[in-house]
Design goal:
This protein is an all-alpha fold. The protein has helices spanning about 5-20, 25-35, 45-55, 70-80.
């Protein structure tokens, strides 16, 4: 079941991004994430995975391009919709 992300969710994502990229201040990341994602219905795991994979890729100089298409969203999609062994879609409990 999807729900909007809480401030605590967004803070955890900002903390993870800042941990990977210390030059990106956590408070600024939290403000950006709150502005861009707080009212959207994203699975927490999907946004967390996308944000961390985006942060790991050193070609990204700013977090402001997180919205752009890229492989970080492919990983996020897999986190939101994991597959069971054998490649079939796993049912949510």
């Amino acid at each position: 079941m999807s729900r909007t992300l809480s401030d605590d969710d967004l803070d955890l994502i900002a903390a993870a991004m800042s941990r990977v990229r210390p030059e990106w201040p956590r408070a600024a990341l939290r403000a950006y994430l709150r502005e861009r994602y707080a009212d959207n219905v994203y699975p927490f795991a999907a946004l967390l995975v996308a944000a961390v994979f985006y942060s790991i890729d050193r070609k990204h100089e700013t977090p402001l391009d997180l919205d752009r298409r890229g492989r970080h969203w492919l990983y996020a999609s897999e986190a939101a919709h994991p597959r069971a062994p054998g490649g079939t879609q796993r049912e949510d409990p």
